[in-house]
Amino acid sequence: MNKGNVLKKEKVLYLIRLSDMLKQGFTLLEAIQLLNDQFPQLSKKELKIKVIGLVKDTGQLHEVLKFLNYPQVILSQIYFGEQYGNLIETVDHSILYLRKIEQVKERFIKTIQYPTLLFCIFFMLLAAVNQTIIPQFSEIYESMNVEISTSLKVITTIFSYLPTTIFTLFLSLVLILLIIYLNYSSKDVSKRISFSNKIPLINKYISMYHSYRISRDFSFFIQNGITLNKIIEIYMMQTKDSFLKYIGLSINKSMEKGESFPDAIKKLGCFEEHLIHYIKHGENKSKLDMELHYFSVFMLDKLEKTFIKHLKWIQPIVFGILALLIITLYLIIILPMLQMVEGIK
């Protein structure tokens, strides 16, 4: 059954309504049954049976969300909330996270949609010029025995091959990225971390994301009275999230050698340096749970602001390239006319 886009853009709304119902005292089964009637996507009989069956068989919300294709970070948070803490609080935090992601997605789409439209219009104009205007100018030149200037020949040749060249480069780029992704996915976690650390800019986003996840999880566990050793044990037992399992095994190995918790985290090399500072400060003040909570909020905001900051560079760069191409296209049209006038004189 294809479940990839069951809720589409309503994943946040689904969790908001679920949280409201749980706060009003509804059981998970009652809430899920009511939600099935509120969302047309879930009104199909086979989907209703599957979702309700998951709740009856497992009693676990994360299983339902997994079926509805929620991201892994949300599934992990909900799982931990069900097993070790306050489910409603965890759902509310998941709503905050998803809202941030949706805002960033919307901002990204708004940023690129206008430049993309302009590029499409430009290439349609370019195709029209290549198919109509340039051949006509060539025929006029031949009939008038006017020699085309070298600069005009170069510009015309470049633009005649430009659509094909860009299309080929685009397909090549997609193929290269696909190969890199498949190669990355096949590596174990330690090699993925080493690989991602070598990629400029991307490594910053990955380290911020990992720092957010770990600080959020550890804060949640500590607030619910779970000891550090138990948290590491929970991580080591993970079967659905290979990254968390690797983190647990690595920290446990380091601490068995006598290293402190902050040093074990630092040794992994996939977290923000500020996380280490917050952990040390929290341990010294006996407020590690609160320190990590505030850090997770800070890191989520930093992720959003950093992405928006980089987005602001996209439009000026794209518009600059587009302006250069339009000016060149204008020269292709106007220069032959000027050259013909010179030839007539």
UniProtKB/TrEMBL annotation:
- Whether Transmembrane counts among this entry's keywords is yes
Cellular location of this protein? Answer: Cell membrane
Answer yes or no on keyword Transcription. no
Which InterPro entries does this entry report, sorted A to Z? GspF/PilC, T2SS_GspF_dom, T2SS_GspF_sf, T4P_ComGB
Q: Short name of one Pfam family for this protein? A: T2SSF
Q: Where is the Type II secretion system protein GspF domain?
A: 16-129, 216-336
Name the keywords, alphabetized.
Answer: Cell membrane, Membrane, Transmembrane, Transmembrane helix
Query: Which stretches are transmembrane?
Result: 117-138, 158-182, 317-338
* Domain of life of the organism encoding this protein: Bacteria
| Topology versus the membrane | Multi-pass membrane protein
The family this protein is said to belong to: Belongs to the GSP F family.
This one is known as Type II secretion system F family protein
Organism in which the protein naturally occurs:
Mammaliicoccus fleurettii
